[in-house]
Amino acid sequence: IKILLSTCSIQLQDKLSEKDKELKTIKLDLELQERATEAKIAEKIAALVEEVYSAQRERDEAVMARLRLANEERDEAFQRVQRLEESLKELENINPEENDMTLQELLNRINNADTGTDILKNGAIILNRIHRTKECKKKIIAEEMNAVIEQRDAALSQCKRLEQELHHLKEQNQTSANNTRHLTAENNQERALKVNL
After folding, report:
1. How far from chain centre, in Å, is Cα 163?
2. pLDDT, tens digit (0-9, with 9 covering 90-100), for 118-139
3. What is the number of domains present in the chain?
4. Helix axes 116-196, 96-112, angle to 10 degrees
5. How many H helices and E strands in the chain?
6. Around Cβ 117, how many Cβ atoms within 10 Å?
7. What's the pTM value of the predicted model, to 2 decimals?
8. 169 lies in some domain
């Protein structure tokens, strides 16, 4: 009986030693799996952070491009205004006294004219001068209107671009938020699986 008990005890000790080794192996495997899971999570988080930084760089570049474009549009508008001012100065530089005198001389010629042909000739010169003045004013008004319309169109175009970019940024932010939630959910599931094991 003692021999039988001793043999059983040795067998049990061997089995216990085997089970202990198996338990240590399982613990080591679990620890390795946990470290691998943590490495995967860290890798995913690093990729997400890089994606966020990349999106931020793209947004910064887009903002700088918009600023450059706005500066160019401002410079073009400024140049148009300068051209209009120069046109106005040219008109202002015409000596009104000289024009009045010439006009007065033409009126005197009409008054002193002996024939209908002289009256018609001087009248045509006066009408021509009036017509040229009107045309010059029309040209200035048309240039001013074109400048205003161009500025309005540029502003509308810029508003559309900004609306599209805002929509794009909202979509990017939503995607980033979804990715973060997805990673967090995966992380929680993996931890829950580890705890259950």
Report:
1. 9
2. 778 777 777 777 787 788 888 8
3. 1
4. 150
5. 3, 0
6. 9
7. 0.35
8. no
Nearest to 41 by CA among 141, 150, 186, 167: 186
- Give the CA count within 13 Å in the CB-facing half-sphere of 147: 18
CA–CA separation, 139 vs 146, rounded Å?
Answer: 10
190 inside domain: no
Q: What is the DSSP string of 53-89?
A: HHHHHHHHHHHHHHHHHHHHHHHHHHHHHHHHHHHHH
Q: Amino acid identity of 22?
A: E
140 Cβ neighbours under 8 A, 6+ residues apart: 84, 87, 88, 91
Asked if residue 140 lies in contact with residue 91, where contact means CB atoms within 8 angstroms, the answer is yes
Q: What is the DSSP secondary-structure string of 140-182?
A: HHHHHHHHHHHHHHHHHHHHHHHHHHHHHHHHHHHHHHHHHHH
Residue 153 lies in a domain: no
Each residue of 141-187: pLDDT tens digit?
Answer: 888 888 888 888 887 888 788 888 888 888 887 887 777 777 777 77
The domain in which residue 4 lies consists of: 1-93
- What is the C-alpha separation between 182 and 169, in angstroms, rounded? 20
Confidence of residue 28 (pLDDT cuts 50, 70, 90): very high
